[in-house]
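User: I'm curious what two different proteins look like when written out as structure tokens. Can you demonstrate?

Assistant: Sure. I'll show them one after the other, since each token string lines up with its own sequence. Here's the first protein:
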Amino acid sequence: MEQSNQGAGTGTITLPYGRETQTLDLSRHHVLGVLQAGGGTSGEVVAESAVIEHALDHPIGRPPLHLMLRATDTVCIVISDITRAWQRMHVFLPLLVERINAAGVPDSQIRFLCATGSHRLITEAEGHTLLGPELSRRFSVISHNCHDESQLTTVGTTSYGTKVRLNRMAMEADHLILTGGIVFHDLAGWGGGKKSIVPGIAAYDTIMANHALSLGDTPGSGIHQCVRCGSIEGNRLNADMQEAAVMVDPSFILNVIVNDQGTIGAAVAGHYLEAFEEGKRLLDLSDRVPIERLGRLAVASVGGFPKDINFYQSTKALSSAKEAVEKGGVILLLCQCEDGVGHPEVSQLLTEFNSHAAREMEMRRAFTVSKFAGFLASQTAEDYEVYCVTDLDPEILTGIGFQVYRRASEALQAIEARYGTGLETYVVPSASNVLPGLVMPSAPKSV
């Protein structure tokens, strides 16, 4: 974890914006800190390949792959879609396949399955990007289609009543290997690990039943108080996902933690629950950034492309930014969204309902994950003043109370015109990967 402290008088700062950057001048405000992820445990620079090799050599709760696999086995490797290209799959997948081949399993018995969840299917070009040049010459990527009944099979029902239907190819493989990146997640608490199963390779109805557990018990209560970044205690959605994962019992996982420089700083491998617990610990060490007090303003970039490829993905940064500012404070969010909102249901929820209460009623009537992204934005606009720098059509966001601008400098001028200067400010350059946490001061020791 890292908090780069910068006091009053700090000058310009450049933040990621899509495939480019935007710059703004914060010299008229009191910058309490620049909140950045560490992406590792010691700050020591280690080659990405060495990080991955070490994880594979020292799996947690599972034997190494060469002791698990037989030459006759079939292996299904679950990978994330293009919105998670920041995981640098092209770096770690060749090393994983190398270990599988070394165990005697030939390429012909290995399949790559993209955990699209309820996202769109990936393109052939995106599959090549995810695998990298070497693997894309040897393999193709199959997109999981949550609507294709021929791809699905029923595994069981959780104690929460969720009927778990998953990708048939994954379930029929001798070994299921999950890959991904561990980050804070506004629904599951942490992304990675078991999320590759639900929602990753689940049926649409399974995904929606699980994610509907994110709402409070009574109308008007909004998002359940335990459903938030970095939280699993009392998080029914997370518990439901875990029950589904236990039914599957995947053979192995390889999960990475990516730092603010965009490289792999840490990795874990092994048992899908035990290794993931260690990954959560490492993420907390590197990406949960302590702050001593809340600010009045948070200037947050989602982290640039592909993290801000659409508004659906960009809402994750709101969950981080709001942890750094007081209720009723100001959030300045940078999200280019070159691929638009990400799903028609996001804009539907934002534009077709004229109040936050009406949006919640729609969520309770027909919950979808895409609508939830819009509802999270609407909830944030209820609690904070949000100024958004984006290429989206302003009409998509102004109905929920966002102030929309094309340039960060223009948005900051509008904030200063309304609230003045000297605002206590935090800057979050990659808000989708960082979770600020208020640290209570220790009680003075008695003499």
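Here's a second, unrelated protein for contrast:
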Amino acid sequence: MSSPSPTTTGDNRLLTSLRKDTVGGGLLVIAALTALIWANSPLADSYFALRDVEIGFAPWHLQLSLGTWAADGLLAIFFFLVGVELKTEFTHGDLRSFRTAIVPITAAAGGVIVPALIYTVLMTSNPQLLRGWAIPTATDIAFAVAILAIIGSHLPKALRIFLLTLAAVDDLLAIGIIAVFYTETINPIPLLAAVGVIIVYGLIASRWRTFFVDRAWAAWVILLPLGLIAWGLMHASGIHATIAGVALGFTIPALARRRDTGQDRRPVQDETPNLAEVLEHRLRPLSAGFAVPVFAFFAAGVAVGGFEGLATAFSQPLTFAIIAALVLGKPLGILASTWLVSRFTSAGLDPSLKWLDLAGVGLLAGIGFTVSLLVAELSFIPGSPAHDYAKVAILSASVIAALLATLVLGSRNRRYRKAEGATLDVHQP
């Protein structure tokens, strides 16, 4: 980590491509489709056998299946980056200013509350399934941003910022829901130990210029083992281990130091990248290219039982509730909460944005793939009918939301492109 910039000349084309939103989203699709095809092929038994293979360390309560390792372990890398991004947004990003942050924060809250309410209302006649109320509250930022990048070349830049901020807050809310509502028992000693290790991790990270500049090995020798210990202790505490990833990410310093230069001793911004930028640059390919696709591969594999099985799944109230909550609840909650905060406070939308643009983003937010699958794993017994129906619903809702968002935002993109073309024609001599 001694490079003066997060972008190094040593990066090969593969690592560079894995940092692109479109590539990460594409790998998610490939992994999910591969799992679905394999789980519904004549070789389905081999898929489930692979998913259920247990490896690890039994004395440390880490004798886990590959599927669990992917959900609890690999996904912690993704959530670590979420924590880093949130820290950056809160320190010097769009969440730093209350006036600019209140609209997407409120939109994210509405996009969590309304889908949860829709699910709960639709499932009141099935109280045993109410535990899945949080499944439709999450947004898959990787999918959503990838689709926006593909179809939104001429959309206002403020729309992408709005989506990123909304998704970041959405992730934070989802993390809180997992920690509070999906933790059945807590072992206080491992939890306190995990908190202690996270504090030490943060203290060392805060001195990263002292420890790590010109010592690239130090970050891996010091921070990586501490992070693994914190993850293991969090797992032993009973709280979902991905929470450790978020907590560790929040400890990473996201602001570059200022230094005095020149004879007038005026402070100027140090050009050296901060640790948040360095870690995000190094870990993004690992998360997008391996951790999240592997999780998707093990989480998306569900035996639907052919057309008859699909027909059965789509006849279930659970399936309908999740699809309705994601496809309808997300945009409704985002639009309604944004209108309320714009109507009754001094905050408002960016002037370049229209309500139809926001409706398209609301539909994109209905893509709940990664975190929704994780919550489904926590809500229902793996292998149970409810567990499989929930997965079918999540995948179906994500496809429907993506298609509808593509139609809306694709139309808006063409409109903005024509408007830009007309403006260029007017100004040409």
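A detail about the second structure: The chain has a mean pLDDT of 83.
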